[in-house]
Amino acid sequence: MTYRSPARNRYVFRLFVLMASYLALLLLAVTLIRGSAVTGAGAWALAIAPALPVIGVFWAVMRLLIEEPDEFIKLLHVRQCLVATGFCLSALTILEFLQSFQLITHGTHGFGAVIWWFIGLGVGAAYNRFTLGSSAD
Amino acid sequence: MKNRLKVLRAERDWSQQDLADALAVSRQSINAIETGKYDPSLPLAFRIASTFNLSIEQIFEPNQ
Asked: How far is the C-alpha of A25 from the C-alpha of A111, rounded, in Å?
């Protein structure tokens, strides 16, 4: 039987709401800004809007770390987040140097910090499974 | 830290899930403790000891 605490259920619900908000705001921003329907301060606000639910995902993950009652599962989550953070910072550092030496073009090409962090969560889950024989996911 | 959790559980014919339910923790936690991959916190160690009606020292011993 897979363990799923009320904290985990709340996390999944929050994630669903935040991701739905992200998609809606992204669609709105792309439509209005690329269509030049909104400019100036409004465009700034619209451009920042899709970032807010993504920041909310970080909040949801941190709430999960606080609310999870099972200490071993909490440990798995913490280790996963630490690996994700290290992976994200390492990947972006390498990209930065590659860009500095003009071996690759500047810009993230849609592969920003968030994507690297989420990939890092997958790496963290694999690390947990390899070293502790268990993953929180 | 070494422990006798698996033996104590077998003596009572409890599955890992039975013990996990009794302690209100995940089955993964029980498995990780039994296999020595995770040392429980002091509060959880007390709860485990209480569940088996034993002292912590009768269940856990430090690696020498």
From this structure: 18
Residues sharing a CB contact under 8 Å with residue B46, sequence separation 6 or more, in sequence order: B56
> Quick one: closest CA in B to A72, which residue?
B29
Query: Could you tell me the CATH number of the domain that includes residue B9?
Result: 1.10.260.40
Structural domain tally of chain B? 1
Q: Per-residue pLDDT for chain B (64 aa), expressed as one digit of tens each?
A: 899 999 999 999 999 999 999 999 999 999 999 999 999 999 999 999 999 999 999 999 987 6
- Please choose, from the candidates A4, A69, A5, the residue with its C-alpha nearest in 3D space to the C-alpha of residue B43: A69
Whole-angstrom distance, CA of residue B26 vs CA of residue A48: 40
Q: What is the ipTM of this complex?
A: 0.92
Interface test with A, best of B26, B31, B48 (most A CBs within 10 A): B26
Residue B19 lies in a domain: yes
Q: How far apart are CA A24 and CA A72, in angstroms?
A: 36
CB A53 within 8 A of CB A22: yes
pTM: 0.88
Within an 8 Å CB–CB cutoff, is residue B25 touching chain A?
Answer: yes
Q: What's the domain range around B48?
A: 2-54
Q: Which two tokens stand for residue A131?
A: 């070293």
Q: Tell me which residue in A69, A71, A134 faces B41 most closely, judged by beta carbons.
A: A71
